Amino acid sequence: MFPTSKIKLIAYLGIALSAISLFVHLFIANSSAGGPYKVHVDDLYPVQKIWHRRLWGPVSSLETLHPIANATPRKKHPAPSGDNGFIYAKIYGGFEKIQSSISDLVAVSKLLNATLVIPEIQSSLRSKGISTKFKSFSYIYDEDSFISALSKDVVIVKTLPSNLKEARKKTKFPTFSTKGSESLNFYLGRVLPKLKESKAIGLIVSQGGCLQAILPPTMIEYQRLRCRVAFHALQFRSEVRALGKRIVGRLRDFGRPYLAYHPGLVRETLAYHGCAENFQDVHTELIQYLRKEMIKKGIIKEELSVDSFSRKRNGSCPLFPEEVGLTLRAMGYPLDTLIYVAGSETFGGQRVLIPLRALYPNLLDRTSLSTDQERQAVVGPELPLPSDIPYPPPAKPSDELLEEWKRAGPRPRPLPPPPARPFYPHEKQGWYGWIAESETEPTPSLTDLRSTAHRLLWDAVDYYVSVEADAFFPGFTNAAGRQVDFAALVMGHRLYQTPSVFTYRPDR
């Protein structure tokens, strides 16, 4: 009996010690964390501190760097006068093209000593029935802060003088369609004489810029001016900033850092770099159709069909979400990492994010961190649009039907074939249903144009959240190429504002 009793005693003692240890650990965890998700770096063990710093930074050697573009210019320049005339511009494209084009327009205005009229953002002007509170430039940005921030560099006005407005309506002023990287000689040799002669010119900017990216060393102040425009003068309007701050605050409420991820799966990017064969079925056709249109416009100087797999291997195509997830896991980011998915367009929809969500369940975006009412406050009051759904013809009254029956001739007679039933939008396989019915992409509907305008706002919100993130990981960036992309803008802003935080640039 003694051996059996001794074993029981040891077992009871082990259970009691385990229970005491469990209660002690729970008490320490509850008192030190202060609630769920309240993890503080200072409370971690030394090894965990090192691991946390390796994943989230900051980088000690870069903490002493500070932005200088908004400091007093190193060389004294005369006050801007804008005596040579007015420059008005139309900007086409998405958020990233608008953001970079405005910086170039300000630099061009200073180069030509011209007065810049607030640029017109065509993606918002083409939309019908959007909020009358915000129009064109003010749909995204704060006009007053933009003008005041650059008052020492360029003269900026909201509209043309009344006499020049009438002349513009009659197309009396020369208009130049610019390329993405026009040279200084183009402006000084061709544009400036016309500006002095007519006192106003128009610029059409559609490729994400209108001035060469790298200027001579003697024009360093123009490069600094570009930075002042992009990182200081271009402030989002208050409603956009408020939603961005609210989303960042809710991410911070989890008590741990978050990583912003931009997939880079944009149809225009995929078409430009020839990545169609990396997708399947209808998505490949959609990319190839857009690539063919870009070849017609002279944007692409290559063949329509290229080897997408070799492009993928040499890094010309975006990383797929599953590749990003595996990379983050290999780098050591834990399963509960908060990942904010930025960008208003992910080609292929939520389906392509399923593998990443399987690796990292805490995948969030603006829709999961804000309410419909909060997003509607950013959009503003809008007029209702007519429905795109085709309605059947109105029913005829019974007496009219009876008269038609009497006039129909002798009976019996065969019944007429039923009318062709129209296809309704919800019966098609998503927004790409046109490709099964037509050789050409249909003209955007009123709903499409409004959605395009809304995407500018959602990109602006996501831009704000991505700049404030503890780490940023792009699925694609083309900072060294001609095509401007969202991730390159975010990376530039982060490296300028806080270079010590983690901003990844993976080798695709």
TrEMBL record:
Biased composition (Pro residues): 383-396
TM ranges: 9-28
Main location (coarse class): membrane
Chain residue ranges for the region called Disordered: 380-399
Pathway: Glycan metabolism
Domain of life according to the entry: Eukaryota
Keywords for the protein's UniProt record, in alphabetical order: Carbohydrate metabolism, Fucose metabolism, Glycoprotein, Glycosyltransferase, Membrane, Signal-anchor, Transferase, Transmembrane, Transmembrane helix
InterPro entries, A to Z: FucosylTrfase_pln, GDP-Fuc_O-FucTrfase
GO BP terms in the entry: fucose metabolic process
Compartments (UniProt record): Membrane
Molecular function in Gene Ontology: glycosyltransferase activity
Name by which UniProt lists this protein: O-fucosyltransferase family protein
Organism: Rhynchospora pubera
